[in-house]
TrEMBL record, chain A:
Coiled coil: none annotated. This is Sarcosine oxidase subunit delta. GO terms for molecular function: sarcosine oxidase activity. GO terms for biological process: tetrahydrofolate metabolic process. Residues 84-104 are annotated as: Disordered. It comes from Arboricoccus pini. Pfam families: SoxD (PF04267).
From TrEMBL, chain B:
Its cofactor is FAD; FMN. It catalyses: sarcosine + (6S)-5,6,7,8-tetrahydrofolate + O2 = (6R)-5,10-methylene-5,6,7,8-tetrahydrofolate + glycine + H2O2; sarcosine + O2 + H2O = formaldehyde + glycine + H2O2. InterPro entries: FAD-dep_OxRdtase, FAD/NAD-bd_sf, Rhodanese-like_dom, SoxB. GO terms for molecular function: nucleotide binding; sarcosine oxidase activity. This is Sarcosine oxidase subunit beta. Its EC number is 1.5.3.24.
Length: 104, 431
């Protein structure tokens, strides 16, 4: 069971939140000009790291706002929480930092 | 690093005891203390024709069918821990083939047809019991979907029938069919050939039968790297040294992404915890498998008497083999909705496994962008039922270098072409 600190509402139980999966996946700016392989990579492929992962979460039963967090997929420890649009530096031991240039 | 001395005695000869009433009697005289080990504890050799990464049911079945069907016995199964302790030993042991789409129906029906002769084929009792799998419908939409699926299955030659509410009650009398509950039962579909099997026995039986045919099952041998030369796989780096391989098959379920990344392959897979639990053992109370999509519960009773109850996946990804408590709480609520009779039953233990979920809830079985490297993953929450079929088609793929007609639609490339096999919600139960 996770205790997640919403950037606006403070620490709340996991059941108030919706997990939106891997963060910082940017939709190709011009889908029509993007080839199938690149679009498939955006749409379906996942880094799925064993270690720290940046994720999108939504406080769906609270303020209903989206934010990002960094969480270990081994221990479930949440190491960082930050708002949409922010792009903090990767942790030293991050196995899968956000891809550079991505949008929230 | 080679261990030829330990191996040589086993090459090409059958050393295992054949299990029979006679061997049981014979061993009774020695108080069952002289049984030979079911499979050889092999140390890896320098080189193999085929190396299979992952010693779960699917990997072991692949090795077995490589040896049996294709005559390829210079095979190693490399397992990080002891065999069968991952998802093979953590699932809820349900076997069925009532999948909607033609591609899935062919794959899971192949598996079910192999299950039906598996104990005899392996000379190992997998305790496969065709007790019937009942999928409940709780509303008008469920009923339409269920009836459509029954017809689709029949067109594919798979047994399936639709049961009315009263027929559901007659088939499984302890289900609460009162109309005034939150999710009343409206009917259901029944696959009588479905049922359950003993999950550990499946791993052990395949290991024993593969080992008997010359396959090396190397436990506590962790793959740490995949060596490539010119876009072609040539071997694997392991905790017990480098092993040269003609072909390599990745069959590592929840860790598929981790292993595929060793060859710089990205997969459309997320690893989620899937939890299950068992109750205290009680006298026989439910003699079939019951699944419900709407309240999301699936339950059967083991031969020991424990109720075996499956939960849903946690929403977040994890490699921790545990999930959140609220998922279990929801599970118990769903169980009691259908079976008020269980309200005072105590749960004995709970656990989690790591399942590799794909966007279309269908597996990936076939080639990778790296030559001679093949992958069998993405079984998500429903891989156990497919164990023999998965091994059978993957053995064909490894032996011939090409997918069998059954697994051709399950190629990794479908995520690029868009030809998905969307079993989310279509496969009788939500994934």
């Amino acid at each position: 069971m996770l205790l997640i600190t919403c950037p606006w509402c403070g620490p709340r139980d996991e059941i108030e939140f919706t997990c939106g999966g891997e963060a910082h996946r940017a939709r190709p700016q011009d889908p029509a000009a993007t080839d199938d392989a690149a679009f498939a990579d955006f749409l379906f492929m996942r880094t799925n790291p064993k270690g720290l992962q940046r994720e999108r979460w939504c406080h769906s039963q609270g303020c209903r706002r989206w934010f990002n967090l960094e969480r270990s997929t081994i221990t479930h420890e949440i190491t960082r929480i930050y708002k949409m649009g922010e792009q903090p530096e990767a942790s030293a031991d991050a196995t899968s930092p956000a891809r550079q240039g991505g949008q929230p | 690093m080679a261990c030829f001395s330990a191996m040589a005695g086993f090459e090409g000869k059958r050393s295992m005891t054949r299990y029979s009433a006679l061997s049981l009697l014979k061993n009774a005289f020695s108080h069952h203390e002289a049984w030979a080990p079911a499979w050889r504890k092999a140390e890896p050799r320098d080189s193999y024709d085929v190396v299979i990464i992952g010693g779960g049911g699917h990997g072991l079945a692949t090795a077995y069918y490589l040896a049996k069907v294709h005559g390829i016995t210079n095979v190693a199964v490399l397992e990080r821990g002891p065999i069968g302790l991952g998802n093979t030993g953590r699932n809820t042991t349900i076997v069925r083939s009532n999948y909607l789409w033609d591609e899935s129906a062919a794959l899971y029906e192949k598996a079910l047809s192999l299950w039906e002769g598996l104990s005899q084929d392996l000379n190992y009792n997998t305790m496969f019991s065709q007790r019937g799998v009942l999928n409940l419908a709780h509303n008008h939409g469920d009923v339409l979907e269920a009836q459509r699926r029954v017809h689709a299955l029949r067109l594919n030659g798979i047994d399936s029938e639709y049961l009315s509410r009263d027929e559901v009650k007659a088939f499984c009398p302890i289900i609460d069919i009162r109309p005034d509950v939150r999710y009343p039962v409206w009917g259901g579909t029944l696959q009588r050939r479905g049922g359950s099997a003993r999950h550990d026995a499946v791993a052990w039986g395949f290991a024993r039968a593969a080992s008997e045919r010359g396959v090396d099952i190397c436990e506590r041998c962790e793959v740490q790297g995949i060596r490539r030369e010119g876009g072609k796989v040539v071997g694997v780096e392991t905790s017990k040294g480098y092993i040269k391989a003609g072909k390599v098959g990745i069959v590592t379920a929840g860790h598929s992404g981790v292993v595929a990344a060793m060859a710089d392959i990205r997969l459309p897979v997320e690893s989620h915890p899937l939890q299950a639990l068992v109750s205290e053992p009680v006298k026989p109370i439910i003699d079939c498998v019951v699944m419900s999509n709407a309240v999301h519960v699936y339950v059967s009773q083991s031969d020991k008497g424990e109720l075996v109850i499956g939960a849903g996946v946690d929403a977040y990804t994890s490699y921790a083999q545990r999930g959140s408590f609220h998922v279990i709480e929801h599970q118990m609520g769903a169980l009691l909705e259908l079976f008020p009779i269980f309200s005072r039953m105590r749960m004995l233990r709970q656990w989690g496994g790591i399942v590799d979920v794909t966007p279309d809830a269908s597996p990936i079985i076939g080639k990778t962008p790296v030559d001679n490297l093949f992958i069998n993953c993405g079984w998500g929450t429903g891989g156990f039922k497919a164990t023999p079929g998965s091994g059978w088609v993957f053995a064909h793929t490894l032996a011939t270098g090409q997918p069998h007609a059954i697994n051709a639609p399950f190629a990794l490339s479908r995520f690029e072409t868009g030809k998905l096999i969307d079993e989310h919600g279509a496969a009788a139960v939500a994934h």
